[in-house]
Write a structure and sequence with these properties.
single chain, alpha+beta, Ribosomal Protein S5, domain 2, 4-stranded mixed beta sheet, 4 helices, 10 strands, globular, binds manganese (II) ion, histidine biosynthesis, Imidazoleglycerol-phosphate dehydratase, cytoplasm, ImidazoleglycerolP_deHydtase, ImidazoleglycerP_deHydtase_CS
Length: about 200
Amino acid sequence: MGRSAVISRITKETDIQMKFNIDGSGIANIHTGIGFLDHMLNSFARHGFFDLELTVKGDLEVDTHHTIEDTGIVLGAAIKEALGDKKSIKRYGNIILPMDETLILCAVDLSGRPYLGFEVPLTAERVGDFETEMVKEFFYAVSYSAEMNLHIRKLSGDNNHHIIEGVFKAFAKALDDATLPDPRITGVLSTKGTL
Ligand SMILES: [Mn+2]
């Protein structure tokens, strides 16, 4: 099956079913109940060449918090599981991604040690039904659940839709880069011998 994961996570707040394939072609089938989140995860799959099937039934009658955060937890868990022993992968990935007036820096280290550095100022409370303060919560959940070091910075940008979409695309490209195999690497890329 290659590097993939199937995850089911059910709580009183959310019911999440995800199939994730690192070595995909960008095929996505995403239904989270939040249009803008679907749009962002479609971009993530397409630009990272990941296949992503996702259905989320969240408590949207409360707000979008649990749905977005728990989707991040599950995506991080899927990345970690799909990566397996991390043998022969590049481990590091980074990009400075432009999107119109927006410029986003994203750097990933699949180190096994969770950390999120997130400096992305936003000026709108919402884009569609999506609460913009949840972007940081989403990536915090992904980074901790996947046990990756993740830094994301806005270098420039005005439009909140562009900025957030730039963040998701930059994350996709940096993660794709970090997960690619390098034939020069035998075992894992660490002097410790483990990632
Ligand atoms: Mn868009």
